[in-house]
């Protein structure tokens, strides 16, 4: 075992206290994966596998003194480094030595592999694999592009971390604090590779945290068997629906989030004192001995294998070798079958408009997302191998690469056009994720709408690019609907359950409807003639179509924020809108059942969603009785 020493020369010995076997999981070593977690027994769907306090949590910037916050803001702009990395380093410098020791003992980092002057730390105190649960790229001899991607990511990450560490070394006496520049680089690597988002727990006091057991879960694209959420120590408070929708601007208070603090508060950075807990639940039944997996990618997980692997190389420094990336056909890249699929225009190679667009309803055809006349690429290379063939899900025909190479769309090979659209949409999605609402976001959404028709007519409705663009439009619709909410209305007031007959409710509904139509007009969506009911129906239909695509692809984790926003929209527009949404209550009840599995039946999130469903159901029943 490699001995690791602290900045003051004392030996840092492995401490296994935070990583222990339990009734539900045990730790083991797997060649190529390092230390991982497996199920210790048969685990039923919805069961809690991990419920642990953080080894280290990074306090939010709002809790720092104003002068410190300004200094960090100025530094990250001057150094050209991520703002979150400055905040993480600040927390590490001010953390007790024992906390930094625990981080180095329990989590992997860049280590000596990236040229840092320290051995790779891990559960065994040295020799740990580069990323928990992920295959070292050196083990994947056939993935030469993975070597290049990970090497470039190593260089960029360590360069950024060293610049940050040197800035703090110039500002603080690191030796007096029991650390050093090199150790700070190593610690920043630990955070980058092992952090979990906790911004929605404990009142937003923390932005990210590290969980010793949670870090042992292996990544799996598309179909992980567990889902992560942060909550409070009793497990009841999971992210509120308002917090989950805050990225659209429909909830939360910006003034509260950016509250100025003039004095530093003693904010705990470890253990139960933080009030934060990382929880992993089973998304399906898990057999004893089965590897426990989690999704590291989030929304980017719907992208093609090529982009998923690149994203993981850049963010987690490994080249993914999960089944979805290596042994399964890449269903995200489904293209219309040239043998049995929808017809293309002979002149330009684009899909004919009448195959995918309903001119009368002015929307995408409902069947387009479930049309199985699609070809998918072979495993492991997306069809790049010599002689590889794509296969049709419907007619079972094999389409050789030579046939695809001859397929032109507006004079360009379809696979080159596909790659260009993939790269453009992936980058656009990342921009939208970070963009505040306003002129910049409106400009980005205009780009989304401009890409939507060309993508559909080139790649078809079931390709992830088309689905991603449609999801972005749906998110924008829901953002507009959230902004239409009248701020002085208490929608949870039981006296206002029947907004149609309550005097205040009538005024409320009229104000909401008028504001919604005006905002839709400003956003370029129209609906002056169809009104709020037509908009609510379009939102619901698109929500259902995309939901079916996600389920068909194996995505089982529920995005409750989107479901709740659809529920809020229909409730606010009124019973007439609800009556037009076929199967609405069944969809909501199914979502509620999934939420109980994902969040726990007693969580605040599930309780709030249950109340909202009951409110809508009561409104519909009362409207029916009035008729």
Radius of gyration over C-alpha positions, nearest whole angstrom: 26 Å
Count of runs of 4 or more consecutive helical residues: 20
Quick one: how many beta strands?
20
Catalogue the unreliable spans. 1-17, 111-142, 237-265, 382-386, 487-504
Quaternary state of the chains = single chain
Q: How are the strands ordered across the major sheet?
A: 13-16-17-18
* % residues in beta strands: 5-15%
| Mean pLDDT reading | 79
For the biggest sheet, the summary is: 4 strands, antiparallel
- The end-to-end distance, rounded to whole angstroms, is 78 Å
Principal-axes shape call: globular
Helix amount: 40-55%
Q: Which structural category do the helix and sheet elements fall into?
A: alpha+beta
Describe it.
- By secondary structure, this protein is of the alpha+beta class.
- 44% of the residues lie in helices and 11% in strands.
- It contains 20 helices and 20 strands.
- The chain has helices at 66-79, 83-94, 97-106, 144-171, 181-194, 241-245, 254-257, 305-316, 323-326, 353-356, 401-406, 414-434, 439-459, 464-483, 503-522, 531-552, 560-573, 575-580, 584-599, 604-626; strands at residues 4-5, 11-12, 25-30, 34-39, 48-52, 56-59, 195-197, 206-210, 218-219, 226-231, 277-282, 293-294, 335-336, 357-358, 363-364, 374-376, 389-392, 398-400, 408-409, 412-413.
- The strands form eight sheets. Strands 13-16-17-18 form a four-stranded antiparallel β-sheet. Strands 5-11-10 form a three-stranded antiparallel β-sheet, with helices on one face. It has a three-stranded antiparallel β-sheet with strand order 6-8-7.
- Helix 1 (66-79) packs across helix 2 (83-94), helix 2 packs across helix 5 (181-194) and helix 4 crosses helix 5.
- The longest helix is centred in the N-terminal third of the chain and has 28 residues, at 144-171.
- Mean pLDDT is 79; it is low at 1-17, 111-142, 237-265, 382-386 and 487-504.
């Amino acid at each position: 075992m490699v001995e690791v020493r602290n900045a003051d020369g004392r030996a840092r010995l492995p401490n296994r206290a935070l990583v222990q076997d339990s009734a539900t999981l045990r730790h083991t070593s797997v060649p190529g994966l390092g230390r991982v977690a497996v199920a210790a027994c048969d685990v039923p769907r919805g069961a809690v596998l991990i419920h642990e306090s953080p080894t280290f949590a990074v306090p939010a910037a709002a809790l720092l003194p104003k002068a410190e916050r300004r200094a960090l803001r100025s530094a990250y702009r001057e150094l050209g480094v991520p703002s979150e990395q400055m905040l993480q380093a600040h927390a590490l410098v001010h953390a007790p030595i024992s906390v930094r020791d625990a981080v180095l003992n329990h989590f992997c980092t860049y280590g000596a592999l990236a040229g840092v002057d320290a051995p790779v730390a891990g559960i065994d105190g040295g020799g740990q694999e580069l990323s928990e649960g992920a295959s070292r790229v050196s083990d994947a001899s056939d993935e030469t592009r993975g070597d290049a991607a990970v090497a470039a990511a190593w260089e960029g990450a360590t360069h950024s971390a060293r610049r940050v560490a040197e800035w703090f070394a110039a500002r603080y006496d690191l030796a007096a604090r029991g650390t050093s520049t090199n150790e700070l680089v190593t610690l920043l690597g630990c955070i980058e590779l092992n952090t979990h988002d906790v911004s929605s727990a404990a009142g937003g006091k923390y932005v990210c945290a590290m969980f010793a057991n949670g870090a042992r879960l292996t990544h799996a694209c598309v179909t992980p068997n567990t889902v992560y959420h942060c909550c409070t120590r009793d497990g009841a408070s999971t992210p509120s629906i308002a917090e989950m929708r805050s990225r659209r601007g429909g909830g939360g208070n910006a003034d509260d989030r950016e509250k100025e603090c003039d004095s530093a508060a003693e904010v705990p950075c470890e253990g139960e004192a933080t009030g934060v807990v990382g929880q992993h639940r089973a998304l399906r039944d898990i057999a004893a001995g089965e590897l426990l997996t989690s999704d590291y990618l989030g929304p980017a997980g719907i992208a093609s294998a090529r982009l998923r692997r690149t994203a993981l190389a850049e963010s987690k420094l490994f080249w993914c070798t999960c089944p979805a990336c290596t042994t399964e056909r890449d269903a995200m890249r489904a293209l219309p079958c040239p043998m049995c699929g929808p017809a293309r225009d002979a002149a330009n190679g684009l899909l004919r408009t009448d195959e995918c667009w309903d001119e009368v309803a002015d929307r995408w055809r409902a069947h387009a997302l479930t049309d199985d006349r699609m070809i998918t690429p072979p495993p492991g290379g997306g069809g790049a191998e010599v002689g590889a063939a794509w296969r049709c899900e419907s007619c079972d025909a094999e389409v050789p690469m030579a046939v695809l190479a001859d397929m032109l769309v507006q004079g360009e090979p379809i696979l080159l056009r596909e790659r260009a659209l993939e790269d453009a949409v992936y980058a656009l999605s990342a921009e939208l994720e970070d963009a505040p609402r306003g002129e910049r976001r409106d400009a980005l959404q205009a780009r989304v709408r401009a890409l939507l028709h060309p993508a559909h007519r080139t790649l078809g409705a079931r390709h992830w690019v088309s689905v991603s663009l449609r999801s972005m439009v749906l998110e924008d619709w829901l953002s507009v609907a959230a902004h239409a909410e009248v701020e002085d209305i208490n929608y949870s007031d039981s006296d206002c359950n029947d907004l149609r007959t309550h005097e205040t409710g009538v005024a409320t509904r009229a104000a909401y409807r008028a504001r919604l139509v005006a905002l839709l007009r400003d956003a370029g969506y129209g609906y002056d003639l169809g009104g709020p009911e037509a908009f609510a129906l379009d939102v619901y239909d698109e929500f259902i179509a995309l939901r079916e695509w996600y389920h068909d692809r194996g995505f089982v984790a529920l995005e409750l924020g989107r479901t709740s926003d659809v529920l809020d929209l229909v409730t606010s527009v009124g019973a007439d809108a609800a009556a037009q949404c076929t199967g609405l209550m069944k969809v909501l009840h199914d979502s509620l059942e999934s939420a109980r599995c994902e969040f726990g039946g007693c969580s605040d999130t599930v309780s709030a969603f249950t109340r909202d469903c009951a409110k809508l159901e009561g409104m519909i029943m009362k409207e029916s009785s009035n008729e």
